[in-house]
Amino acid sequence: xxxxxxxxxxxxxxxxxxxxxxxxxxxxxxxxxxxxxxxxxxxxxxxxxxxxxxxxxxxxxxxxxxxxxxxxxxxxxxxxxxxxxxxxxxxxxxxxxxxxxxxxxxxxxxxxxxxxxxxxxxxxxxxxxxxxxxxxxxxxxxxxxxxxxxxxxxxxxxxxxxxxxxxxxxxxxxxxxxxxxxxxxxxxxxxxxxxxxxxxxxxxxxxxxxxxxxxxxxxxxxxxxxxxxxxxxxxxxxxxxxxxxxxxxxxxxxxxxxxxxxxxxxxxxxxxxxxxxxxxxxxxxxxxxxxxxxxxxxxxxxxxxxxxxxxxxxxxxxxxxxxxxxxxxxxxxxxxxxxxx
Amino acid sequence: xxxxxxxxxxxxxxxxxxxxxxxxxxxxxxxxxxxxxxxxxxxxxxxxxxxxxxxxxxxxxxxxxxxxxxxxxxxxxxxxxxxxxxxxxxxxxxxxxxxxxxxxxxxxxxxxxxxxxxxxxxxxxxxxxxxxxxxxxxxxxxxxxxxxxxxxxxxxxxxxxxxxxxxxxxxxxxxxxxxxxxxxxxxxxxxxxxxxxxxxxxxxxxxxxxxxxxxxxxxxxxxxxxxxxxxxxxxxxxxxxxxxxxxxxxxxxxxxxxxxxxxxxxxxxxxxxxxxxxxxxxxxxxxxxxxxxxxxxxxxxxxxxxxxxxxxxxxxxxxxxxxxxxxxxxxxxxxxxxxxx
DNA sequence: CTGGTTTATGCATACGTTTCCAGATCGGGC
DNA sequence: GCCCGATCTGGAAACGTATGCATAAACCAG
Lengths: 341, 341
Prior knowledge:
Helix content of chain A is 43%, strand content 17%. Chain A is of the alpha/beta class. Chains A and B meet through helix 4, helix 5, strand 2 and helix 6 of A and helix 4, helix 5, strand 2 and helix 6 of B.
């Protein structure tokens, strides 16, 4: 038994297939009773319209492609949740594809999106650099990047306000009396690392604290790298009393390194993360961190895409503020009277 | 400038559009040099075939729909990662949709999948019950369920071997000398809860331990519910010395409740979870739990779907084993000599 | 009753592919 | 030189929908 088409139900209703098409789309040209009758019949027969045939003629698929490094990353998953929700609200479906941070794979999935004629594309935390953009921009669909890791002005993007957020985080440490504050960054030179580092520097400058290069260490954005980087900082002749970590994943590793060294957080060392992953609430101690409004960033990206699809102007770059979440991994410097800070 | 079609490049090559179609698909009918020439031209002109037009005639979209409760759930995200990977390996794209555990929304997205003519559907942790299946089965596409929460034989599914895994987890506690072992379950009566509870009972029976109803409490599968349920258990005149939690999320709440009661895990109470979420490695103490091979379950579901798509028989029910991961939230019963167990 | 509007419907075409069938070209055996 | 088969290519129809245009029916004013 073939899937039924508009013609089958046209035959059943004794009208032309154009009439059926109009009835189902709710055209005002038709007599209301005709519309009702046809819909009734379609319903009874269990007819479901073919979006693919529709797309062929309308040249719109009501579909967007989302490429992520890996959906298993909790940060990414929440962003995608926001995207999907916003898309679904407007009748769009989303294609999801993992790039696994491999440029060639990212190209491949974007190619596949092009063949599927998605109306737009959202890319999160792309690590694909300059070679990337020409390809993206010569396909005719609008593209929005979320927390893009390589600077570039040509496309639309929504990003966390890295500099302000990290400045605020470090200022929090300074307010607690800390003077030797480490920065645990990412060794790959991504934009978010660069910007967060800049915020760290700014906070030091504002407080008149000297920048000490030996207090900077680089991980890989994951617990393992954070662990190794933290060990270096702990091995310093004069170790930092507080460390601002590039992201929560690094902070997890850092936390472990501190504990393994027989020290306590926050009594011996204060730790701040970035992202506010779910896990941050459940570490020991719960992690002070900068919250990124992940789902909202997803929604925002989707809404930007909608504006673009409607031919409207859209902001080239949307910066959303982070929020410092105070938990128990930060404490006043031992022997420091907070009021005196 | 319109997107170019097969005809545009046919004109450029001085052949018919049928020939172009064959060249691009790699038909053996064509002279190899013709194929090469046409591909060359298509390449130069930046042609990308339209999957939607193709789908219309082939009646295959090379597309599958995945419906999840919410992609923000880390468990789900990993499963979806496995699905996407397996799909992508074979040239399939995946539509992702959140149901937010609302039946009507789940219906809606499945409807939308039907319109898009997906070749198959995968549903994870569906909480939609019986009313659901007729609809699913009368659309003609194959469906596979992952960890379905309502029993039913009509469709294909892959599930974790709940009973065996939970029996093993509880036996671990028994081996540690525990005798008063609590079960912290889910109050919604899902299949996974039922089965895990059965495993708990079996383990008690095997060890000749009495089942004590007061040692069973129900949460909601999330930290809040686990927290509340654990408080009840702690308030017992004679509290359990170990608790097996239905899932890691509940265990997180339980952990917090224990700590708030001024007790220590595992010295005062041993705790076991289920799922092995990422967070389980980073709690204090790290959580002993049953690992579900999430990505693999996703792959398996996808592969089952492929078999179905090829018209092959496929197992109605695939059970994958869990794996007990020993961490630091379980310890021998205080004053108990393990060797004597 | 007639002619001109308005209203409701049907016809035909287009969207961009795939694929069946027919036709053209070519080489070779007789 | 002719015919046959093999090899390659083109023509045309089909997939299921949307929509511009033509047309039929109904209405109303004169």
